[in-house]
């Protein structure tokens, strides 16, 4: 008789029941928290762009995608709100939230790379957070379920 056992081998689940959660659920929660923080950062960045366009290091024409800072501000505010909504859904174990979280993280990383000339350190922090979110939600997203 084996001395190693797990919940799955001791108590077989009913047909259609979800497998037991593993320790990787913490990684998904981490991804949700990072997505929430990235959403807050996008909100801050968007509000600054809307309130004071002279704050940034370069003029909009010097960015990779030349748009007025007001347009950048609204883009960041929308990304921030969507990221916070997706993070909330991730905490609730919703599949749509994980998919939306990955999409938002990809869009966030892309927009942050385009915005790199305006505020390099902030953009690098956001890209790093986005990569962590994508990894957590794609590699271990199935660990959290509703």
Automatic annotation (TrEMBL):
Record's keyword annotation contains Signal: no
Presence of keyword Cytoplasm: no
Xref: Pfam families: DUF7144
Keyword tags: Membrane, Transmembrane, Transmembrane helix
Record-linked InterPro entries: DUF7144 (IPR055568)
Domain DUF7144: residue ranges: 27-142
Annotated transmembrane regions: 21-51, 71-92, 99-116, 122-140
Name of this chain's protein: DUF7144 domain-containing protein
Organism, scientific name: Paractinoplanes globisporus
């Amino acid at each position: 008789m084996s001395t190693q056992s797990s919940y799955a081998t001791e108590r077989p689940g009913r047909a259609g029941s979800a497998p037991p959660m593993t320790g990787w659920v913490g990684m998904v929660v981490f991804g949700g928290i990072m997505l929430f923080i990235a959403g807050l950062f996008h909100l801050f960045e968007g509000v600054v762009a809307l309130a004071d366009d002279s704050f940034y290091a370069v003029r909009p024409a010097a960015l990779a995608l030349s748009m007025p800072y007001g347009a950048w501000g609204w883009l960041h505010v929308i990304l921030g709100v969507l990221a916070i909504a997706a993070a909330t859904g991730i905490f609730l174990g919703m599949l749509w939230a994980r998919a939306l979280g990955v999409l938002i993280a990809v869009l966030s990383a892309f927009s942050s790379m385009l915005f790199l000339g305006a505020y390099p350190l902030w953009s690098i922090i956001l890209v790093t957070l986005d990569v962590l979110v994508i990894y957590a939600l794609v590699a271990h997203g199935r660990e959290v379920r509703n």
